[in-house]
């Protein structure tokens, strides 16, 4: 599914990723944990195609294709999805208009017929109900006036509607109370599938109590310094990251 080899990235002359290697198999939920400044969010942005970052070396393969050669919209059409840590408010763009536009844009890229309005409405209402998103939220501007939890639920709604093959969750638990966390995690868990993979970026074990990972990777100073099973997250919660900072230095 995802294979990253020797990825070296900098921004404004500062090296962020230092020869990072990572493999995530189809059907797998992989968690990345690490201290602030270790490069976790940078990794998510580079996979998605954010332009500010300069890739100096390495490759990112999705199903064997090096997506570094693709524009962000082309990566999305290939099934790459990024749920942001801080989703933006977009005044003047209605939520429903946005959802229909992104769904039909991806269908067009895959040479599929666009959804009719009744088909679109049926899909949105079914997915929104599962995520406790009421009709009033859907009638508003995209993320405008939403709480942190509502914005995160809207991100997961987009993911549910687009049905991507590789999903990146960049600190989705940030700013969520326990009830919102459970709702978001439930939405993610319903999308777990043998043909879909997840990369879950987080600082804390609490998210991984609800989205149980298959593998956990520790990131420090721009590279993966240790990998293990779900029990590794518990170890990190107890001992912190000091040893890994020294190991990566």
Automatic annotation (TrEMBL):
<dbReference type="InterPro" id="IPR003439">
    <property type="entry name" value="ABC_transporter-like_ATP-bd"/>
</dbReference>
<dbReference type="InterPro" id="IPR010230">
    <property type="entry name" value="FeS-cluster_ATPase_SufC"/>
</dbReference>
<dbReference type="Pfam" id="PF00005">
    <property type="entry name" value="ABC_tran"/>
</dbReference>
<keyword id="KW-0067">ATP-binding</keyword>
<dbReference type="InterPro" id="IPR003593">
    <property type="entry name" value="AAA+_ATPase"/>
</dbReference>
<comment type="similarity">
    <text>Belongs to the ABC transporter superfamily. Ycf16 family.</text>
</comment>
<dbReference type="InterPro" id="IPR027417">
    <property type="entry name" value="P-loop_NTPase"/>
</dbReference>
<keyword id="KW-0547">Nucleotide-binding</keyword>
<dbReference type="GO" id="GO:0005524">
    <property type="term" value="F:ATP binding"/>
</dbReference>
<protein>
    <submittedName>
        <fullName>Fe-S cluster assembly ATPase SufC</fullName>
    </submittedName>
</protein>
<dbReference type="GO" id="GO:0016887">
    <property type="term" value="F:ATP hydrolysis activity"/>
</dbReference>
<dbReference type="InterPro" id="IPR017871">
    <property type="entry name" value="ABC_transporter-like_CS"/>
</dbReference>
<feature type="domain" description="ABC transporter">
    <location>
        <begin position="2"/>
        <end position="246"/>
    </location>
</feature>
């Amino acid at each position: 599914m995802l294979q990253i080899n020797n990825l070296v990235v900098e921004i404004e002359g500062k090296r962020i990723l230092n020869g990072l290697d990572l493999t995530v198999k189809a059907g797998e939920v992989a968690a990345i944990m690490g201290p602030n400044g270790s490069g976790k969010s940078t990794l998510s942005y580079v996979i998605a195609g954010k332009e500010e970052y300069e890739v100096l070396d390495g490759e990112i393969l999705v199903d064997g294709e090096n997506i570094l050669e693709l524009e962000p919209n082309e990566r999305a059409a290939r099934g790459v999805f990024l749920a942001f840590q801080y989703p933006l408010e977009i005044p003047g763009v209605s939520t429903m208009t946005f959802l229909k536009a992104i769904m039909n844009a991806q269908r067009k890229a895959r040479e599929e017929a666009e959804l009719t309005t009744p088909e679109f409405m049926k899909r949105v209402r079914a997915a929104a109900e599962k995520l406790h998103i009421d009709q009033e939220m859907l009638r508003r501007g995209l993320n405008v006036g939403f709480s942190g939890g509502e914005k995160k639920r809207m991100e997961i709604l987009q993911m549910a509607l687009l049905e991507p093959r590789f999903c990146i969750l960049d600190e989705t638990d940030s700013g969520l109370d326990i009830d919102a966390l459970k709702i978001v995690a439930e939405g993610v868990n319903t999308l777990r599938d043998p043909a879909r993979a997840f990369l879950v970026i987080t600082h804390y074990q609490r998210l991984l109590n609800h989205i149980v990972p298959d593998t956990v990777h520790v990131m420090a100073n721009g590279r993966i310094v240790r990998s293990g099973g779900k029990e590794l997250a518990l170890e990190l919660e107890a001992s912190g990251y000091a040893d890994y900072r020294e190991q990566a230095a």
